[in-house]
Amino acid sequence: CTSMGRILLAALDDVSLHEYLDHVDLQPKTSRTIRTPEALLECLQLVRQQGWCIVDQELEQGLRSIAVPVYDASGQVLAALNVSTSAGRVARSELEQRFLPIMLDASRDLSTQLFT
């Protein structure tokens, strides 16, 4: 599941999320891929808590991405913003420390401009 996909899944209500997890077929892409619905649920709970998501080489070796939600006027997640990079060029810690604050600001600005 992509970082944007996890943002959108984490925004689902519990009933819809569990319905999805009951039917999802998780296909491993790399050795880091989440392989069970239980592990994905745990990951999505973290996304809900922190409000952003990093996927680190789970879809493709060497691909690292970070995503943040974009909210509608009622505070519901409408979309997600994403930055993807080469794991060899940008460390995970750099995504969190350098990219994340800028992305959160961009998300707030976009949400405000779309719905005011």
Task: Give the helix/strand layout.
Blueprint: H1 3-10, H2 14-23, H3 37-50, E1 53-56, E2 63-71, E3 77-86, H4 92-114
Helix pairs in contact: 1-3
Note down, in words, how this protein is organized.
Strand 1 and strand 2 form a beta hairpin. The protein is of the alpha+beta class and 116 residues long. Helix 1 packs across helix 3. The model has no long low-confidence stretch (mean pLDDT 96). It has one domain: Beta-Lactamase (2-Layer Sandwich), CATH 3.30.450. Strands 1-2-3 form a 3-stranded antiparallel sheet, sandwiched between helices. The N and C termini lie far apart (32 Å).
Q: How would you describe this structure in keywords?
A:
single chain; 116 residues; alpha+beta; Beta-Lactamase; 47% helix
